[in-house]
């Protein structure tokens, strides 16, 4: 019985030894022959050290990028063109600190096994010290989620996550600057909009826009800012085929001109022509080749008249309360001064905060229903608002014109037609001003 048990145990032991031998000599391709407890880094660089990047991939044209003298990335191959700084920064960030998932082989003898003899993607990196490194990306691992990788001249083979490969496996269209105008919106200092027999020009002084042509007028900062953002945010569609590109060019050629916008910034002036064909908008830029379909928001932004960009507000103090307001309505005068959180009358009496705020809001909200060229007669209401610590004093005169009112700002030629209700509400708010309630006596 014991001899029989020993024999069975010997057979089991021999089987285990055989399985172990087979396992050690027939490992699946996704199992590393050599592993490390801590996956080693493949590349350790600083972003600023990377000066050039070349990307080669099967079936695609070679792509090359280089920093210019100001540190910005430019595409140098397949032809010189602007690069998308954010997209290239993503590539640089991946390369600067590329870690492996694991070390597959410390001394690989057959790179073909991993698809690295003829890599799917090769990324060449040139550094400030003229050192060059080439990253090779091969086949996907059998279990998925990873890719085999190596450095040219380094016998080690690693795996890296698939998402790391995706961040490096880029084409020209992925990394080119897709903006139709390459100026930064916050650096645009002048805009000219030529459309429908009108020529409008805007100039910026710090954060404030002004209409320069056809004549000096107050501009609506929000409206002009939206125009600039739409124009500088217009992007080309690089996913279309060559046949689509021909159709787009034909649509532009036969389309009705909507407007031509010229934007000026530190690097010069750039132009965008916008046309409309069968409800769609197409654009041609002075800084990039080709014609592109653009969103309707771009077409609508340039398809506007002068009055759409004018400031309809009568006062510029905005959401900040002025320090003083004076209202002259016929023979009556109302005077408010801001002191701390309170409003005070001319006789130094504190005003009821609700009634005072109603008048201030009505003055703030005065806005044109439309702009007119005539109709102002004798002023029946005069408003003066002092703000910006006394540095800004605005005066508005209002006259009656039929069922409406016509207003003008002091020393400005523009005339603003006001809805009657806005003026009567203001007059009533002035009449309804009242003293603040008396403070309750202590103990009661």
Helix and strand arrangement:
Elements: H1 2-25, E1 41-44, E2 50-57, E3 63-67, E4 73-77, E5 81-82, H2 85-96, E6 97-99, E7 102-105, E8 121-127, E9 132-140, E10 146-151, E11 157-161, H3 162-168, H4 172-175, E12 190-195, E13 198-205, E14 208-213, E15 217-218, H5 221-232, H6 242-254, E16 256-265, E17 268-277, E18 280-285, E19 291-294, H7 296-302, E20 324-329, E21 332-339, E22 342-344, H8 353-364, E23 370-372, E24 379-387, E25 392-401, E26 404-409, E27 415-418, H9 420-431
Antiparallel strand pairs: 1-6, 2-3, 2-8, 3-4, 4-5, 7-11, 8-9, 9-10, 10-11, 12-13, 12-16, 13-14, 14-15, 16-17, 17-18, 18-19, 20-21, 20-24, 21-22, 23-27, 24-25, 25-26, 26-27
Describe, in plain words, how this protein is organized in 3D.
This protein is α+β, with helices and mostly antiparallel strands and 444 residues long. The protein folds into three domains: 41-175, Immunoglobulin-like, CATH 2.60.40; 185-309, no CATH class; 324-431, no CATH class. The chain is 23% helix and 36% strand. It has helices spanning 2-25, 85-96, 162-168, 172-175, 221-232, 242-254, 296-302, 353-364, 420-431; strands at residues 41-44, 50-57, 63-67, 73-77, 81-82, 97-99, 102-105, 121-127, 132-140, 146-151, 157-161, 190-195, 198-205, 208-213, 217-218, 256-265, 268-277, 280-285, 291-294, 324-329, 332-339, 342-344, 370-372, 379-387, 392-401, 404-409, 415-418. The strands form four sheets. The chain has a nine-stranded antiparallel sheet. An eight-stranded antiparallel sheet has the order 15-14-13-12-16-17-18-19, with helices on both faces. The longest helix has 24 residues, at 2-25. The radius of gyration is 36 Å and the shape is elongated. 25% of the residues are buried. The model is unreliable at 16-36 (pLDDT under 50).
């Amino acid at each position: 019985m014991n001899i029989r048990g020993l024999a069975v145990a010997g057979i089991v032991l021999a089987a285990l030894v055989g399985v172990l031998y087979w396992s050690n000599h027939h490992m699946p391709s996704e199992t590393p022959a050599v592993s490390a407890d801590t996956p080693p880094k493949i590349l350790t660089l600083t972003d600023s050290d990377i000066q050039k990047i070349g990307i080669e991939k099967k079936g695609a044209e070679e792509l090359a990028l280089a920093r210019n003298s100001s540190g910005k990335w430019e595409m140098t191959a397949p032809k010189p063109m602007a690069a998308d700084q954010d997209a290239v920064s993503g590539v640089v960030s991946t390369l600067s600190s590329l870690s492996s998932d694991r070390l597959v082989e410390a001394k690989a003898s057959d790179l073909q096994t991993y698809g690295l003899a003829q890599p799917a993607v090769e990324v060449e990196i040139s550094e400030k010290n003229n050192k060059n490194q080439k990253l090779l990306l091969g086949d996907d691992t059998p279990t998925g989620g990873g890719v085999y990788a190596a450095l040219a001249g380094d016998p080690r083979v690693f795996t890296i996550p698939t998402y790391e490969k995706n961040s490096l496996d880029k084409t020209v269209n992925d990394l080119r600057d897709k903006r139709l105008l390459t100026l930064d919106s916050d650096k645009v200092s002048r805009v000219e909009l030529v459309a429908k027999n009108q020529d409008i020009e805007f100039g910026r002084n710090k954060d404030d826009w002004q209409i320069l042509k056809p004549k000096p007028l107050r501009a609506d900062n929000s409206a002009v800012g939206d125009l600039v953002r739409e124009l500088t945010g217009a992007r080309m569609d690089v996913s279309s085929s060559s046949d689509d590109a021909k159709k787009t060019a034909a649509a532009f050629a036969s389309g009705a001109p909507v407007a031509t916008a010229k934007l000026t910034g530190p690097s010069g002036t750039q132009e965008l022509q916008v046309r409309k064909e069968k409800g769609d908008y197409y654009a041609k830029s002075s800084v990039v080749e080709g014609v592109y379909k653009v969103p309707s928001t771009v077409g609508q932004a340039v398809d506007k008249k002068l009055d759409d960009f004018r400031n309809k507000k009568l006062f510029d103090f905005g959401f900040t309360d002025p320090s003083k307001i004076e209202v002259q309505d016929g023979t009556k005068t109302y005077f408010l001064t801001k002191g701390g959180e309170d409003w005070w009358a001319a006789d130094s009496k504190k005003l009821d905060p609700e009634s005072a705020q109603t008048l201030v809001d009505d003055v703030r909200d005065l806005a044109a229903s439309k702009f007119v060229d005539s109709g102002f007669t004798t002023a029946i209401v005069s408003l003066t608002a002092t703000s910006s610590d006394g540095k800004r004093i605005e005066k508005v005169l209002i006259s009656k014109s039929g069922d409406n009112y016509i207003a003008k700002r002091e020393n400005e030629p523009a005339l603003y037609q006001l809805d009657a209700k806005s003026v009567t509400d203001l007059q009533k708010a002035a009449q309804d001003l009242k003293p603040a309630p008396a403070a309750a006596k202590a103990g009661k």
